[in-house]
């Protein structure tokens, strides 16, 4: 499979090409970690502020790269009930995994935001970014959180996605902007990047710090 992007930064810059959604009164929210550099360069091009929306995948026991849903900082979850049923995943396991992931979300929120409050989304054109979609459940959780916080419109903006996930997300967001929708399986976001290193908290904090310096 060909590589389309040198790195997440290049992907963020390219996301401005043909950008279809409202740019006025907009805020870019990146899903950490990989969605932050993508969001940073998109926000630069749009002249919009950047912040983090810390939603996380609920990993399958024994297969942490695969997920059965996602959870938001307020503890609200979106669950893939078909996967849960097919794997006979018991409720106590779901609760245990959710609690552990929520603890990590709160740690990351403290690291990324410190005492800075979550931005006011009321009436804003919210742009949610990630470095790519797989099942899309973290993006679904982010869309739900943005709507719950009063977003005027919600755009999901990603460099790459498999076809079925793109269809699912486009039905939930007001706008869906994706540079490459793939019909090839197996699908791996990393295969579309030359550099897809595991990002650190320090890198995320660095991008957020630069964005805050520019927008304040």
Automatic annotation (TrEMBL):
Domain Phosphoribosyltransferase stretches: 21-172
Highest rank taxon of the organism: Bacteria
Database matches in InterPro entries: PRTase-like (IPR029057), PRTase_dom (IPR000836)
Protein name as catalogued: Phosphoribosyltransferase domain-containing protein
Native organism: Candidatus Solincola sediminis
Lineage: Bacteria, Bacillati, Actinomycetota, Candidatus Geothermincolia, Candidatus Geothermincolales
